[in-house]
């Protein structure tokens, strides 16, 4: 399904807004530009609704419809029948339990985690029941954050220190809230977070994955400062592929095992700004929860820092940002009444040392689409038919990020 009609909208909205809601009219247009989103088809909707017995109450809703993209190569990576359901579960169950726990624990407003956009409706199939397997009729209706003064960052440039601090602090609370739920309400945790984190089917075989290795290595070789580290990078790539196809290679340490976004980069977060200062972010929302997994929280942290920050942020502020993550992580556990004695700063550093090498392949792989010039990005998701055919040689942005990532990983002994 690549479109949505009036009847679809009405049936999707009624469970949230009431059975007396009538969709009077709506308009639809593509929400994202090439390179902004690879995992779904996104539409911006303006929906005019009528509500009430007298049909006198009119309201306009600015929404986003997230639809399953056409079958093709990306189905092998994203597994929409599974991942569309996983994301819907995040909005209808995980979000609800996060909010419920915080209210029960009287978490103050300034520390209340509020990173999920509002959901206006969802379905996995044409059935009224939300099943555990989606099809091409799956739809997720969300508030349109762009109309609420939220904006994306610059994926090629990366986020400055102010934006990075906000993202890191809220990422820490997002992870910690899952652990709090695990400790305080284990059965609820199993029925929501753990259920939503079930593995999806990554339908790429090892041979196909390894066929991309020469291109990844070339993206390192063409950076003069990194050429000497190609053998180390190859080892990291091999480790990453082993991790993908040998799940027992590095099982998560239960202490830091939590909900992991798995795709936490610039375009999967949006920032809200102070009305009096358009450069000062005052809020953040996370999006695209299709491929969440149960693993170590530091995987999101390391992946974000090395794919999504502007030049100099890692070099000059790495230690500060790791402390910021730890402070927010432990504070979130404390305000929900959890024991934090095991979560020492050193234990976090040890967890990072264990998992950063595993993320090296993930980072290197994703720098290509993250940094791609708009002209190099396929105009349609259906045009993407493989790993190696879509993007041209690394541009200046990719070379800069590759250099910073490789040199810092070598310095820290991660590759």
Automatic annotation (TrEMBL):
SUPFAM superfamilies listed in its UniProt record: Protein kinase-like (PK-like) (SSF56112)
Alphabetized PANTHER family for the sequence: BHLH DOMAIN-CONTAINING PROTEIN, PROTEIN KINASE-LIKE DOMAIN-CONTAINING
State the taxonomy lineage.
Eukaryota, Metazoa, Ecdysozoa, Arthropoda, Hexapoda
- Family annotation (InterPro entries): CHK_kinase-like (IPR015897), EcKL (IPR004119), Kinase-like_dom_sf (IPR011009)
CHK kinase-like domain residues: 140-335
According to its UniProt entry, this protein's organism is Periplaneta americana (American cockroach)
Q: What is this protein called?
A: CHK kinase-like domain-containing protein
Top-rank taxon? Eukaryota
């Amino acid at each position: 399904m690549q479109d949505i009609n009036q009847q679809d909208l009405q049936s999707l909205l009624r469970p949230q807004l009431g059975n007396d809601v009538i969709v009077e009219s709506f308009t639809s247009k593509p929400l994202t530009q090439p390179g902004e989103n690879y995992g779904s088809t996104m539409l911006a909707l303006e929906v005019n609704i009528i509500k009430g017995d007298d049909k006198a109450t009119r309201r306009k809703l600015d929404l986003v419809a997230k639809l399953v993209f056409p079958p093709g190569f990306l189905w092998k990576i994203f597994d929409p029948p599974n991942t569309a359901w996983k994301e819907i579960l995040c909005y209808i169950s995980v979000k609800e339990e996060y909010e419920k726990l915080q209210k029960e624990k009287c978490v103050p407003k300034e520390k209340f985690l509020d990173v999920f956009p509002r959901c206006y409706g969802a379905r996995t199939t044409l059935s009224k029941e939300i099943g555990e397997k989606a099809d091409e009729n799956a739809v997720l209706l969300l508030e349109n954050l762009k109309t609420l003064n939220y904006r994306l960052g610059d994926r090629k440039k990366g986020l400055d220190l102010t934006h990075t601090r906000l993202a890191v602090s809220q990422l820490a609370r997002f992870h910690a809230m899952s652990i709090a739920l695990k400790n305080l309400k284990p059965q609820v945790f199993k029925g929501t977070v753990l259920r939503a984190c079930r593995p999806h089917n990554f339908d790429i075989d090892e041979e196909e994955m390894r066929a991309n290795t020469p291109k990844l290595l070339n993206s390192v070789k063409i950076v003069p400062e990194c050429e000497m580290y190609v053998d180390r990078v190859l080892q990291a790539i091999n480790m990453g592929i082993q991790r993908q196809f040998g799940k027992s290679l590095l099982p998560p340490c239960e202490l830091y095992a939590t909900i992991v976004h798995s795709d936490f980069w610039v375009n999967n977060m949006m920032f809200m700004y102070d009305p009096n200062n358009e450069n000062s972010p005052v809020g953040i929302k996370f999006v695209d929860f299709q491929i969440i997994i149960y693993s170590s929280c530091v995987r999101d942290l390391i992946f974000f820092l090395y794919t999504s920050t502007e030049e100099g942020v890692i070099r000059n502020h790495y230690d500060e940002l790791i402390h910021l993550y730890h402070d927010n992580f432990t504070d979130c556990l404390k305000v929900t009444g959890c024991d934090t004695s095991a979560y020492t700063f050193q234990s976090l550093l040890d967890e990072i040392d264990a998992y950063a090498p595993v993320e090296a392949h993930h980072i290197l792989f994703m720098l290509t689409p993250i940094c791609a010039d708009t002209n190099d990005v396929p105009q349609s998701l259906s045009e993407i038919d493989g790993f190696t055919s879509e993007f041209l040689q690394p541009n200046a942005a990719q070379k800069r990020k590759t250099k910073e990532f490789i040199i810092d990983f070598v310095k820290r002994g991660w590759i």
